[in-house]
Design brief:
- By secondary structure, this protein is mainly alpha-helical.
- The protein has nine helices and three strands, in the order αβαβαβαααααα.
- It has a three-stranded parallel β-sheet with strand order 1-2-3, sandwiched between helices.
- Helix 6 crosses helix 8.
- The N and C termini lie far apart (39 Å).
Length: 186
């Protein structure tokens, strides 16, 4: 990471992070975690003490349940420890610029899981049949070009629909769109 020109401080505990942030500007906190129970307590502590700094969690287990719990605890992204350095660098840049990241495998696992609670979509979020089809394709991970081909429309039209959908759902990127659509069962 230092070879990417980041200033990096390694700390033995999350408590040291609060002290460091009080003395220096921090763009990103990376929490290297073990079990989800440890992560939850550490994330709660960091969210309370370092509200303005985004958090990326790196841990061994990134199943759908862990991903959801980590994101609900306030992290902006989660990566498996097996991720390549190039992916880590890209995810760090994404989160530092205001985005969020979820591993695609976790999204697929969550998509295939049986819903435990049926959530009705919000009444104030009506979607056209085209927008609903685009949302379904995004949840599957399809790129704009494939969505356009499958739905028989121009790629630029797909982009316009996606911007409109993002505005209605109040999300900033495709990952957040897919997660919110999954939560709302759209």
């Amino acid at each position: 990471m230092r070879s990417w020109t980041y200033e990096v401080e390694t700390l033995p505990s999350v408590e040291g992070c609060v002290d460091l942030i009080s003395r220096h500007t921090c763009d990103l906190i990376i929490l290297w975690g073990g079990s989800h129970l440890d992560l939850a307590a550490d994330l709660d502590f960091l969210r309370g003490a370092c509200r303005s700094c985004p958090i990326l969690v790196i841990c061994d287990t990134v199943g759908a349940e862990t991903v959801i719990k980590v994101l609900e605890s306030g992290a902006r992204g989660i990566l498996p420890t097996s991720s390549k350095l190039d992916i880590l660098n890209g995810v760090m840049s994404l989160i530092r610029s205001g985005g969020a990241y979820v591993p695609p495998d976790s999204m697929i696992e969550a998509y295939r899981a049986e819903p435990t609670v049926s959530v009705q979509p919000s009444i104030d979020l009506p979607f056209t049949p085209r927008q609903s089809a685009i949302i379904a394709a995004i949840r599957k991970g399809s790129p704009n070009k494939i969505i356009a081909y499958d739905l028989g429309m121009c790629e630029s039209t797909v982009k316009v629909h996606i911007r409109s959908i993002m505005k209605k759902l109040k999300v900033r990127n495709r990952t957040e769109l897919a997660l919110k659509a999954m939560d709302l069962r759209i």
